[in-house]
């Protein structure tokens, strides 16, 4: 069974991932206003290079970049390697914008990207030391010590210093090696607006989400924006109210997602399971036609956050992750593959008599797809109609055998 699990499904690939740690910071060595000035000059220089590159016929080669900008950047007080970083970064920005037929990039944020030559990360002291132009600053991370501790054994790659909303922030990008183990079983995760259901082959578990609570906050913010459509942007009181509601909604979603992700992933880790998730890109494509609008966008945002949280936690614990096609997970009978009928949330199979709650059906179908790759459909089997796919499951063994063997439904 171990070996066969490895061969099917779309696995989150092993390798190096990046994980950012962001914290508010305060200057404890050096002068905060100097730092702000250095950031402003950094932004100015970056924009200047972007402007020049934008008007350039075609795009210059790396060697030409040096000739064009090195001297100017050095005159602005940047050290040699920082000058190189700035023009390479500017080139990347311009390339990306031109490739997507976008407008000329405008550098709005006051931020600088620094590598190991200009930054020293001392997590044991909760301090990051950076050099911008020619001055050194020590920045103390204002974050819970226990949280910072968790990053101590990781290798860092880049430090970003940012100034936004009158606050100073430091982000540290860490490298995380992801070496998933060979799973002994699977835990499937089905996400709905109100509940998240997990299924591990024998037991289903249900968690209440806080998505509706978050969505209602967003809905209220949008209501206010609509009611004061002409002036909400310019009226501080209304603007603050709108922002606060959006922030609360975001916090609720983030909070819930990280807590749940931890719970699910740690449980899977203890049992040596892989986690099976629905492919959200697919979900979006299949739903776009039917429902649109704000509500759906927000729901997708919440799902994404949850998936992102689960994947990040999985990387942390080396838990394998399988992503499966989400189409028809709640409309196909997991026992015989027939299309299910619904009475409210109760799914009934007319053919084999299977009867279960909707969330459970979703979770078990995701579980089965995790087990058999894309059960009942092939990832690129575009020619088949949905009905055909449901009634003629395309797999090596009949699903009924499988269910008898591994699950108790
Ligand atoms: Zn059935």
What is the element layout, followed by pairings?
Layout: H1 2-7, E1 10-11, E2 15-29, H2 32-55, H3 62-75, H4 80-99, E3 110-114, E4 119-122, E5 127-132, E6 135-142, H5 145-149, E7 155-164, E8 167-178, E9 185-191, E10 195-199, E11 204-208, H6 211-227, H7 236-271, E12 273-278, H8 280-288, H9 294-317, E13 321-324, E14 341-343, E15 346-348, E16 355-357, H10 358-372, H11 386-391, H12 399-406
Parallel strand pairs: 9-12, 12-13
Antiparallel strand pairs: 1-13, 2-6, 2-8, 3-7, 4-5, 5-6, 7-8, 9-10, 10-11, 14-15, 15-16
If helices are DSSP runs of H or I spanning 4 or more residues, what is the number of helices? 12
Structural domain count: 2
Largest beta sheet: what is the strand line-up?
A: 3-7-8-2-6-5-4
Structural class assignment:
alpha+beta
The H/E string reads HEEHHHEEEEHEEEEEHHEHHEEEEHHH
Strand content: 15-25%
Flag low-confidence runs. Answer: 1-8, 374-409
Got a strand count? 16
**Largest sheet: number of strands, sense, barrel closure:** 7 strands, antiparallel
* Radius of gyration of CA atoms, rounded to a whole number: 26 Å
